[in-house]
Write a structure and sequence with these properties.
The complex is a heterodimer of chains A (about 350) and B (about 250). In chain A, about 75% of the residues lie in helices and about 0% in strands. Chain A is an all-alpha fold. Chain A has a two-stranded antiparallel sheet. The longest helix of chain A is centred in the first third of the chain and has 30 residues. Chain A is globular. Chain B folds into 2 domains: about 160 residues, Rossmann fold, CATH 3.40.50.300; about 70 residues, no CATH class. The relative contact order of chain B is 0.18. In chain B, α4 packs across α5. The chains are: A mainly alpha (about 350), B alpha/beta (about 250). The interface between A and B is large, with 39 and 47 residues. The structure holds adenosine-5'-triphosphate (ATP) and magnesium ion.
């Protein structure tokens, strides 16, 4: 009952926010994106213990694929060069077709990319995996900077949003809301069954999991591909929200998005359902406040915050709660020592 | 024909000869012992049998099938499981969760990745946890149990997996003498009531003499002796190996 009330309340607030704060639509859209970042990262890093600094690659790939599809659907390259890099002649219909087709294709392609990459690097453990994925991000940025078809080092300008449709901020608020909620529900559904315990087992002791006959590779690939799917669709939308894709600072932004997704998940509590959501909210709001009130020092403040999170909250908020009040999470000793006694107690209750 | 048949298994690590032409057999339904001084190559032999590392030479057959080229999870799914000398459990998961994920995964398709946990599982889990004496602690994180206690969920997890053959690497190490009797009893019941064949590495002579019908003794990576418990107990070579007179 209480859950239903909370759910209804949450839904109403989520829908009301862009109307109540029209000036902050973009910031709230970004909040949903941050939540999606933290959730997709946590599926790999938190639940499965595979600390990936390469998830942002899927974000970037989705961004490029969507932008290219939007461009090539209605322009040929010649003509595109002619309009001097600005695509502003799209009707609402063309815009919607382009962006959603692009995001759909991105989702499918990156899942394949994840499966292929995964076959190579999901066999690495611990630090080796982390470092390899970091290399992947750097390499992706460099490669994208060298391909003329996608604008090389100078990037791509995405189509101008047709404002006759609705306010741009409003549109992206709802796009990111749907993606983030979709990610959350998918995580929750997947983690509620065998998949959840299998990836947790891999996190706790992968050798043991193998010795027990668990098909670890299958679970690892599934987690990685699921992250990729949502990240790439988010990337497709994000390219359009930002209006401009730079290979290193926007698409394959390992130093910002790539690190933030890790921090937000850690801050809220790795390996929990709600931790990443809470972490993302706190992180994003704090960061926006830094930007507003500490302008000029915002990067320093952000750096200090990152150090603070890692030093004081290594377990995150949810981890802290679990450590101090384990009984809230059901970790307690029973008085009953046999099944029979336990059954008697349950029937009395 | 024996359930497990190791013939001429050899394994070297650089210059160290850990196993040299080891042959042994484990017939179905029996409890077989494997003893030997520290460093004699017992754990290495287990590792070779379950596919943890490739053999340099020799063959391993499980139920007649050559398995020396298979990998750890594949062999586990055939029904041969091992426990670790240094106990391994999933520390950040509760004992019940440790058990739930230890269900056999022999014939699972892609979608069974998302299976839920049926009620019958829970009944069986409660039962097995009671069997090893962990029922009251079933909702604790397995990593919060003491090191000695962690042997219990590891054993229960192995039973949950319904193996045909279970390889136990020093199941009584670190367990206090009064509890050891209970453990011997449970191992015997797992063998008799659940029909699980056992191959047990053990340093505690009293335990292995009580448990096994047939014992193999390794020393310096080679098979030193084999026989019935009484024969092994009185074998001068075994006595010398244990006293270090070589
Ligand atoms: N991965 C490895 N790399 C190098 N040497 C190894 C490795 N594993 C085992 N050895 C060596 O092989 C020999 C046999 O080791 P093993 O662990 O099999 O002994 P054990 O009989 O199980 O001893 P214990 O009773 O102490 O458990 C030892 O000399 C050991 O140092
Ligand atoms: Mg050993």
């Amino acid at each position: 009952m209480r859950n239903t009330i909370l759910l209804v309340l949450g839904t109403i607030i989520a829908f009301a926010v862009p109307f109540m704060f029209p000036a902050y639509q973009n910031q709230f859209a970004m909040l949903w994106l941050m939540i999606l970042f933290a959730l997709t990262w946590d599926l790999m890093g938190g639940q499965m213990g595979y600390n990936s600094f390469g998830n942002v690659v899927f974000f970037g790939v989705g961004m490029y694929i969507t932008a290219v599809i939007q461009r090539d659907l209605y322009f040929d390259i010649e003509e595109y060069a002619h309009v001097a890099g600005r695509i502003d002649a799209l009707t609402p219909d063309q815009y919607l077709t382009g962006i959603f087709l692009g995001m759909g294709v991105s989702g499918i392609v990156t899942v394949l990319v994840a499966i292929i990459l995964g076959a190579g690097i999901l066999g690495l453990r611990g630090h080796y995996f982390a470092i390899c994925t970091l290399g992947l991000t750097i390499a992706a940025g460099e490669i994208a900077s060298g391909i003329d078809y996608i604008g090389a080092g100078s990037g791509i300008v995405t189509p101008v949003f047709p404002t006759e449709l609705m306010a741009k901020g409003m549109f992206f608020y709802f796009v990111f809301m749907v993606l983030a909620v979709g990610t959350f529900l998918t995580n929750k559904w997947m983690l509620a069954g065998r998949f959840g315990l299998a990836v947790n087992a891999i996190r706790d002791d992968e050798d043991k999991a193998e010795a027990m006959g668990i098909r670890t590779k299958r679970y690892k690939t599934m987690a990685w591909a699921t992250s990729a799917f949502f990240l790439s669709m988010a990337g497709g939308a994000a390219g359009n929200l930002f209006g401009f894709i730079d290979p290193i600072n926007v698409a394959f932004a390992g130093a910002t998005f790539g690190v933030w997704m890790v921090l937000m998940a850690i801050l809220g509590g790795k390996g929990t359902i709600w931790g990443p959501v809470i972490g993302a909210a706190i992180f994003h709001i704090t960061q926006e406040l830094f930007w507003t009130y500490l302008f000029g020092w915002q990067r320093v403040a952000l750096g200090a915050m990152i150090v603070g999170i890692v030093v004081f909250f290594p377990q995150g908020i949810m981890g802290f709660l679990r450590q101090h009040w384990p009984h809230l999470f059901g970790h307690k000793v029973d008085e009953q020592t046999t099944v029979e006694q336990g059954a008697t107690k349950e029937s009395e209750a | 024909m024996s359930m497990l048949q190791v013939s001429g298994a050899s394994k070297r690590f650089g210059g160290v000869i850990a196993n040299e032409k080891i042959s042994l057999e484990v017939p179905e339904g029996k409890i077989i012992g494997l003893i030997g001084p520290n460093g004699s190559g017992k754990t290495t032999l287990f590792n070779s049998i379950v596919g943890y590392h490739p053999l340099d030479d020799g063959s391993i057959r499980f139920e007649g099938q050559e398995i020396s080229h298979l990998r750890v999870p594949e062999i586990a799914r055939l029904g041969m499981l091992r426990t670790f000398q240094q106990t391994r459990i999933y520390g950040k998961m509760t004992c019940v969760q440790n058990m739930q994920i230890s269900k056999p995964n022999r014939n699972e398709g892609l979608m069974s990745m998302f299976d839920r946990f049926p009620k019958e599982d829970l009944a069986r889990i409660d039962h097995l946890l009671e069997f090893v004496g962990l029922y009251s602690k079933r909702n604790l994180l397995a990593g919060d149990l003491s090191f000695g206690q962690q042997k219990l969920p590891e054993f229960a997890m192995a039973l949950m997996n319904e193996p045909k053959l279970l390889l136990l690497d020093e199941p009584t190490a670190g367990i206090n003498p009064t509890l050891i009797n209970g453990l011997i009893d449970r191992l015997k019941r797992a063998n008799e009531e659940m029909g699980i064949t056992l191959l047990v590495i053990e340093h505690n002579m009293r335990v292995i003499m009580n448990l096994a019908e047939h014992i193999y003794c390794l020393a310096h990576g080679e098979m030193l002796a084999e026989g019935k418990p009484e024969e092994i107990q009185n074998d001068q070579r075994v006595i010398d190996a244990y006293l270090g007179a070589h």
